[in-house]
Q: What sequence folds into this?
């Protein structure tokens, strides 16, 4: 069986890609002239409240804190060691809070909003696209036109439209945030019902766009497969409609699986604009704030997390493809 | 191939008054099969020949009950195996009504078998689905046993069952598709250009297999659709020549090839090269003009604008059926010239 060899080969490739990504992630910020500590100290200096002597001391302490006084190769080993131990460093702007803590706070919100919307959107979108392709006629034109409209609409545009009508005009949902002021996150009934109330708007604005995009893709794939020779042959053999739809679905699914895995992979980066529009405390907001305050450790950590997630998602796609599409397995392993 | 005997052979199927049309823009119908009736004797292969676009495949799809919009079967009955099947697909329940007959009574061996098996399906899974579509009580292993026995009988390797279509060569794939389409011992097999995508040696293998299957009574009979006349004269017992949605001449293959009664038949035959000594000096002229637009066919005989023997009556009235026994042609010229063969050189000017 070539499947094990196929997966092993893929795993090696992805391991190499991950290593390259880690090296780049380490080197790129250090190629920028100056170092991040300069930025912090000079911004402190601009305040005017620190003397040159104090500045010197602050500088020295930051440099040793971040290990910038050591040679590059040592820094790299320390960096590697930290990553292996899951230590992402200390945030500059929220010093002395660790990046782990910041990310740990943001990730649950992002996952809570993205994972359900991607999965539900994917399932509904594909079902809708497939039904539109099979039914044809008025069903198709209705579903296709609305899907096209939804998928062509930028996230923020739909977010703002929903925000205006459902929150501002109808007052059904709160305008922004993830939970009511004064509550603190925790697993209790009161907090969860409150968070769910805030959840609907950002969820809707994500899920509608995903449904649209998936439905458009699935519809055209299914229409293409409907016209293929094997559908005709299977009908001529008296195979039932349900079975034939199964064949078509299996083949039309293949590109859609890639889409699903990739969106799950990029998911940890947060739906940047949606989170900003709704002032939602996820990874997107964290990244945005880190960039605007030059918080290198946070930016670096988020890019690393996104890289790992995207690589992992791609790897998962390749494995799933190897299982569901015999042609790819054969081509990649030379199996005959 | 069964030798023709003096006694008329038992009839396998009779199709009467087939009418099928493509709906071009929802309102206007383009008739592609026009009042066609056909008979196939048991144990024989009927060849269906004609130019591209004359309605051969449409007729095949009509008989195989797989007409799909925009093709609609307007009318027609098929008498086969003691059944009388209404082929019309105008009512909503037609597909469900026809499904049990497909594959079991009439089976289709399609054009372009390259993609006839879903690329993500193992052959054995398709085999199971085919068998179980007609008999729910059959288990997976029953179906596989049936397929294994059939492959062994035909001298094909059994391991193909575990493979995917892309792992088979073109010739093997086409033979496998043939085995699957005849797995349930259909009464009638409709082979729609099964050889056209194959190289010559694979063509030969497939044709020998089809003839073997008819001789072994795996199927009751077959209709072989192609425009490859040399293949037809090798495979078939009878020929039906089709032009612009109508059958213009039918008869035993040997008789039709040597003494055609319809000018179109003889023009078609004249367009084929025989690999003989004289071929070097012979020029193939082909048939001048092209088949008519079926949305607006010529009046009277549809071949008259291209026919060198056309008379004034041909454009006015539908030609009469002129026949001696099982050899008959629809032609005014044939009516005026009983027992005469169309002079070939008169056509290929």
A:
């Amino acid at each position: 069986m070539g499947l094990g060899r196929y997966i092993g080969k893929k795993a090696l490739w992805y391991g190499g890609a991950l290593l390259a990504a880690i090296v780049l992630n380490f080197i790129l910020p250090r190629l920028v002239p100056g170092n991040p500590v300069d930025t912090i100290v000079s911004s402190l200096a601009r305040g005017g409240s620190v003397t040159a002597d104090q500045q010197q001391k602050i500088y020295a302490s930051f440099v040793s804190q971040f290990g910038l006084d050591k040679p590059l190769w040592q820094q790299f080993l320390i960096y590697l060691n930290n990553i292996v131990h899951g230590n992402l460093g200390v945030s500059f702007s929220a010093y002395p809070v660790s990046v782990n803590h910041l990310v740990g706070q943001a990730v649950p919100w992002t996952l809570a909003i993205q994972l359900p919307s991607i999965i539900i959107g994917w399932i509904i979108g594909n079902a809708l696209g497939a039904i539109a392709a099979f039914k044809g006629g008025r069903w198709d034109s209705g579903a296709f036109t609305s899907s096209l409209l939804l998928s062509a609409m930028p996230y923020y545009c739909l977010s703002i439209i929903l925000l205006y009508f459902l929150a501002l005009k109808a007052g059904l949902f709160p305008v922004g945030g993830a939970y009511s002021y004064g509550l603190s996150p925790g697993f209790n009934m009161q907090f969860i019902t409150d968070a769910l109330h805030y959840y609907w708007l950002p969820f809707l604005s994500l899920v509608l766009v995903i449904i649209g995009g998936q439905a458009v893709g699935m519809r055209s794939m299914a229409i293409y497969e409907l016209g293929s020779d094997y559908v005709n042959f299977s009908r001529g053999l008296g195979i039932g409609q349900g079975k034939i739809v199964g064949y078509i679905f299996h083949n039309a699914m293949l590109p859609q699986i890639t889409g699903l895995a990739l969106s799950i992979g990029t998911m940890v980066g947060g739906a940047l604009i949606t989170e900003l529009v709704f002032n939602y405390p996820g990874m997107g907001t964290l990244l945005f704030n880190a960039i605007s305050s030059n918080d290198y450790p946070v930016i670096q950590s988020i890019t690393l997390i996104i890289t790992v997630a995207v690589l992992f998602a791609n790897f998962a796609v390749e494995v799933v493809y190897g299982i569901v599409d015999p042609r790819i397995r054969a081509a990649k392993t030379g199996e005959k | 191939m069964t030798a023709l005997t003096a006694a008329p052979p038992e009839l396998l199927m009779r199709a009467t008054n087939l009418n099928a049309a493509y709906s071009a823009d929802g309102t206007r119908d383009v008739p592609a099969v026009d009042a066609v009736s056909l008979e196939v004797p048991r144990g024989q292969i009927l060849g269906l020949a004609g130019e591209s676009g004359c309605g051969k495949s449409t007729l095949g799809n009509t008989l195989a009950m797989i007409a799909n919009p925009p093709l609609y079967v307007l009318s027609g009955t098929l008498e086969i195996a003691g059944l009388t099947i209404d082929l019309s697909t105008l009512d909503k329940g037609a597909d469900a009504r026809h499904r049990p007959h497909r594959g079991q009574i009439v089976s289709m061996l399609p054009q372009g078998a390259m993609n006839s098996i879903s690329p993500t399906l193992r052959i054995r899974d398709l085999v199971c689905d085919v068998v179980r579509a007609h008999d729910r009580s059959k288990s997976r292993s029953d179906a596989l046993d049936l397929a294994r026995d059939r492959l062994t009988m035909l001298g094909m390797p059994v391991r193909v069952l575990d493979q995917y279509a892309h792992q088979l060569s073109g010739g093997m794939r086409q033979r496998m598709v043939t085995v699957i389409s005849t797995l349930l011992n259909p009464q009638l097999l409709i082979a729609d250009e099964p050889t056209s995508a194959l190289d010559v040696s694979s063509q030969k293998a497939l044709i020998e297999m089809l003839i073997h299957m008819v001789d072994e009574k795996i199927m009751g009979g077959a209709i072989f659709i192609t425009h490859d006349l040399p293949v037809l004269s090798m495979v078939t017992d009878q020929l039906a020549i089709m032009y612009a949605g109508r059958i213009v001449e039918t008869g035993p293959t040997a008789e039709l090839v040597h003494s055609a009664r319809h000018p179109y038949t003889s023009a078609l035959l004249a367009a084929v090269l025989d690999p003989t000594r004289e071929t070097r000096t012979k020029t193939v002229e082909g048939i001048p003009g092209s088949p008519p637009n079926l949305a607006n066919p010529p009046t009277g005989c549809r071949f008259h604008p291209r026919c060198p023997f056309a008379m004034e009556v041909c454009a006015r009235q539908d030609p009469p059926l002129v026949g001696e026994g099982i050899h008959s042609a629809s032609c005014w010229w044939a009516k005026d010239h009983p027992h005469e063969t169309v002079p070939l050189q008169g056509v290929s000017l």
About this structure: DSSP finds 14 helices and no strands in chain A. The CA atoms of residues 226 and 245 of chain A lie 9 Å apart.
